[in-house]
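Q: Hi! Curious about what CCN family member 3 looks like structurally. Here's the sequence.
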Amino acid sequence: IWRLWCSPASPQSVTSPFVDPYNRTQYCKWPCECPETPPKCPPGVSLLMDGCDCCKTCAQQVGEVCNEADMCDYHKGLYCDYSSDKPRYEKGVCAYMSGSGCEHNGVIYRNGESFQPNCKYQCVCVNGAIGCVGLCTESQPPRVWCQTPRRIKVRGQCCEQWICDEPRRGRKTALRHAVEAETTNWHKNCITQTTSWSPCSKTCGRGLSMRISNANERCELFKESRLCNLRPCEVDITKHIKPGKKCLNIYREDQPTNLTISGCTSKKAYRPKYCGVCTDERCCIPYKSKTIDVEFECPNGAGFTWKMLWVQACFCNLSCRSPNDIFADLENYYGYPEVMN
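A: Let's find out. The predicted structure is below.
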């Protein structure tokens, strides 16, 4: 009886449920055979070196199958969980590692979680930090013959498109004469390209914001700067908050005063608006403004003109950020850009 039980021909030994843990599938093959061009990954998916250290490949995402060759997207805090494939531990499933989440516009996102704050960006939370990629391709304005290009919002589409507004009386020159017109009057055909003003360099007191523009006679890109003062540093604005309220969105001095810079005084007296403060976690930042020219006079008789940010309205919200935050373009309130000229 003992011999029959242990015999290799026994049916019980053939149908044994045990699996050889050492007979594993070989996913890596050498020498490496890689495509000539790396794959193009969808927005938000990392391009990584595979686990064989051979080829570039698109990383596996949460819930997808992984193995020694197909790597999980560790940029999103993912790892390959082999716990359900005992005893071989050959195939796994991409899962989140423990890590701190992120907060954006009052919404908490888990570590490694992808989200779209709006239709123009795809973002991911990576251990407390948010990274984003643009979903709209940056297109160029129409060619030089179009003197008045502008971008418009198209119904049913997220990304804006360029159009050319022709004057009602029609072009004075036909399209075939565009090259000649460009040579004789090139400055008239200059397509103005101007970036948005950067956030103010200081949260209180006088600072600077910058932009790049070619709106000049030579149609050349230059860096422009303007003065900005979001709120005075020496005034305790919290004393002006009404009883029962926690925020003051706009603060303004009682009397107009002359502005000073480097010992020079503005020709006119101004009573600017400033963004207020909150006693809770909210912050107040400008969402509508314009740029004005301020003329200064100096004691020696010299004078100069400075561009200056003129705050028109501020908005108190929970999306607080520091100056020059790289995600400033993601913030949008009630359909208005944060700073509008």
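A: A fun detail: The longest helix spans residues 178-184.
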